[in-house]
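PROTEIN–LIGAND DATA SHEET

This sheet pairs a single protein chain with one bound small molecule, zinc ion, given as SMILES. Inputs appear in the order they were entered. The predicted three-dimensional arrangement of chain and ligand is reported afterwards as a C-alpha cell string under its own label.
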Amino acid sequence: MMNPTNIMAAVADKVLGHNPTSTRQQPKTHPTEKMKAIVWHGKFDMRYDEVPRPMVSEPHDILLKVTATTICGSDLHLYSGELPGMEKGDIVGHEFMGIVVDKGPDVKLPIGTRVVVAFDIACGFCDFCKREEYTSCDTTNPSRVAETMFGHALVGVFGYGHMVGGYWGGQAEYVRVPFADLNCLPIPEDVPDEKALYLSDVISTSFHACEMGKVKPGDKVGIWGMGPIGLAAARWAQILGASTVVAISGTEDRLDIARSLGCVVINYHEQDPVETISKMFPQGLDCCIDAAGFRFAKSIGHKIQRALLLESDTPEIITECCKACRKNGIVSVIADYPGTANNFPIGTISMKHLRLESGQSPTQRIWKMALEKLRTGEYDPSFFVTHTMRLKDVPDAYKQFYNREGGMVKIFVRP
Ligand SMILES: [Zn+2]
Ligand SMILES: [Zn+2]
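PREDICTION REPORTED AS:
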C-alpha cells in the first residue's frame, strides 16, 4: 500500500508536470536480460525482485556492474514511507560501487575500471557544478514538486524517489550512471571495496558536517545521532583536531562504538543532553552537529503534531543543538529535513548569534581528499561497519536497521 504522503506527492507530480533536464531519468532496458534489485513496494515493504537490466542510455553514461552496496540511514525515511515521492516499483539505493562494463561514446573512463559512484547526480556544466556545488546541480532533476515546495529544483539522486528524479538505484546487480566521468571516482587497487564503498556518501557527508561546522583544533563538538553519519563525523572531528567530541544517542551499542573512538557519551534516555553538556562545558560547545533528523520527535507535543500532520519535521534536535551551543557558535545540520517544523528556535539562534549551516555533501569535491585519508589509514571506516550480507537479505536488513536490532549500524552488501 502506498501511504498518503506518497500518494499526494504522486498526484502533485502528475498535475505540475516536469522541467526539462540534461539527461533522461529512466534508463533504456535490455530486451531480454534481467537482474536482481531491491524494489520499493510501499510503506515497510522492500522486496528482492527480478527486473529488466538497464543499459547505457546516453552518450555520457556508463553501465556499472555493482560489486558492493549498502543501506543508508536516509533510506529508512523511504522504508517508513515518510519521505514523499516514492512510487511502487522504484529501485532504491544511492551508495554503491562496481566495475564499468559498458559506456557511451563521450565517456573517458575505460571499461573494466573499478569506481565508486557519488549519491548525487551532477552534470558538470551548470553554474552550480562549475562552482563545485554538485548537490545543487540544476539540470538533473525534472521534479516540479520539489521546485514548488522549495523555490528551486533539487539535484537528482540515485534510488531516492521522484522528488529527486526517480533514477534507478544501486541496491541492484547493475545500475546506469549518467555523466560518468564526473560522478565516478576510480579506486586504486590498495583500497578494498570494504573501505572504498563509503566514499559514495557516508565519508564525504560526515566530512561536510564538520566542514559546515568549521571544526578546528581545540574545538568542543557535540554530535546528535550516532547512526553511520554521526559516528563517521565524530572521527572526522577528531582528525580535524577537536579537543572533545560529545556523542549523543539513545542506543547503547552505538554509544559503545563512540566510546571506543574516545568520545564523551550521553544516552538521552538517562541524561538530558543540554543539562549534561552545560555542566561539562558552562560556556557551551563550539559546534553542534545534528546527524539525527526530522523523524525523531521526543516530546509528546511534537509526537502528536507529527501524527496529526500539523508538522512534518520536528525541530527538537535543532533546539537542543542551539541551546547547547556557545554564543557565536555554529549549528551544522547534516540530517534530512524535507518539510516544515513548528516551534523552530529562531529566538535562540538570533539572541545567541548562532550560525545555522545545512546542506548535502558535494561528494565530488570531497572524495579525492577522503580517498587519500583511506589510503594512508588515517581514516578507517571499519569501525562503523557492523554487518556483511548478500543482496537477497537486504529486505530483512531494512527491518532490522529501522528497529535498531542486532547492533546494526552499517552493512556491507555483495550482490
Ligand atoms: Zn546515503
Ligand atoms: Zn550541474
